[in-house]
């Protein structure tokens, strides 16, 4: 079955371009478009897509608040969100990840990476643009804008530290399995253990924690 996606961007030409790229992929179908965040939230709650692709800067309700409404900590049945932005040093991207987004991309990412991000989100995984992950997260983690990160009650194992580092650098589960020469199921198990030990909800928050605690540096 096709992955059902809603695209939200306040620029019509951008929405059209994103829709064309996604609809051209055989396993992805755009089922709705929105020109602002409030409309995106309304559509998402009504249509229940697999993934919402949200621009950060939109009228009425920006991408951060739209993300929090659809995927935030208080949402009982969250919808996967991928945020997309023009600027690779935009603090709003960091805030969107904090709000529950599973990943982010730059608008010049290209069709292949866009498709990969949507598929990853639909599968419960996440894709963070490798070209900006380290610089963006490290910059804002070190800016003192967030509370001191909570340390795990139980120490991480050596293997979990390895998994932590690869997740923080934007690797998918399949890439981690190949890089560390372990099975995909083993990677998933370690990622789940990390979420439990760190008290986070997804791999994006794992990456943020890794930079905030200086486990990984740019």
TrEMBL record:
UniProt KW Phosphoprotein keyword: yes
Domain (HTH luxR-type): residue spans on this chain: 149-214
InterPro entries: CheY-like_superfamily (IPR011006), NreC/VraR/RcsB-like_REC (IPR058245), Sig_transdc_resp-reg_C-effctor (IPR016032), Sig_transdc_resp-reg_receiver (IPR001789), Tscrpt_reg_LuxR_C (IPR000792), WalR-like (IPR039420)
Keyword tags: DNA-binding, Phosphoprotein, Transcription, Transcription regulation
GO biological process assignments: phosphorelay signal transduction system; regulation of DNA-templated transcription
Pfam families, per the entry: GerE, Response_reg
Domain named Response regulatory: residues: 4-122
Record GO terms (molecular function): DNA binding
Keyword Iron-sulfur: no
Residues the record lists as 4-aspartylphosphate modifications: 55
PANTHER family reported for this sequence: TRANSCRIPTIONAL REGULATORY PROTEIN NARL-RELATED (PTHR43214:SF24), TWO-COMPONENT RESPONSE REGULATOR (PTHR43214)
Descriptive protein name: Response regulator transcription factor
Organism listed in the record: Nonomuraea zeae
Lineage: Bacteria, Bacillati, Actinomycetota, Actinomycetes, Streptosporangiales
